[in-house]
Amino acid sequence: MIIANIDMKKSILKIDNTIEFIDEDLLLDGLNIAYLRQFFGDDAGWFFQQFLKMAYSFICTREFYLSFDCDCLLIRDLKININKPFLNAMPIKIDINHPYFATIQKLLNIKIDSAHQYMCEFMIFNKNIMQDLCKVLNPRDSTLFYEPIIRLVSKNRDKYSFSEFETYANFALAYDVYDFTYIPVYRCGGRFYNKIPTLQDSLLRDFAKVYYLLQFNHWDKPVWFAKILHNKFLRKILGFKNLMRIYYYFGFYKRDFKNILMENNSEDK
Q1: How far apart are CA 50 and CA 165, in angstroms?
Q2: Which segment of 91-95, 124-128, 169-173, 246-250 scores lowest on mean pLDDT?
Q3: Strand 213-215 relative to strand 86-88: parallel, antiparallel, unpaired?
Q4: Neighbour-count burial of 14, counting CB atoms closer than 10 A to its CB (0-12 exposed, 13-18 middle, 19+ buried)
Q5: What is residue 261's predicted lDDT score, i.e. its pLDDT?
Q6: pTM over 0.85
């Protein structure tokens, strides 16, 4: 099942004609990108994709549905027990005053787990819990769950923001449905590849010894350390993990992050 802009339909079905395609603007009546642009401008797409994951609960025919971000590559087997699914809980403490939490507290007034981060690349949603969440967000019409979020966030973008994963996970904690686990993800795959690699790529196989997912954010760009990491001889002598430690602990990661951020900002201008 792929939810996307209608312009993508032909290209997607060429990949596999058994894919069920859904026009993102037709998934839920009233929810479309043109409407959201009135409130969020160029950021409308970011909010739209979050609302689509929530809206799918209204047409889902099964108890659970898995949402998988399209900028991620699964590089090793991921086993899920559907009888006891898990929340991908990253052991990262978040400031309780974070704009995501400010929105949750304002709209839901629930206890927040700030000791974990649920902003991950995939999530196993329970259809019924998601629909309960939508009802709490908008008791008058749960299919318009996004309206209170729009009204709150669009008026004060500095104080409020929205994360469907953080909101759903913290809401779902009140239900005895999930186990907790952490599936390691490397979020900077775009720094070491100029295109998405095949699963037979030797460096990718080393990544797969440590991580389950390799993410390719659109803002990342290949960096000079990529040549070192792709060097099979260096990986054999020093080890993949040691090379990654060098990339982080010698400050290369932070420097690359700043440089990429500056380059993207200059391109935007």
Answers
A1: 8
A2: 91-95
A3: unpaired
A4: exposed
A5: 78
A6: yes
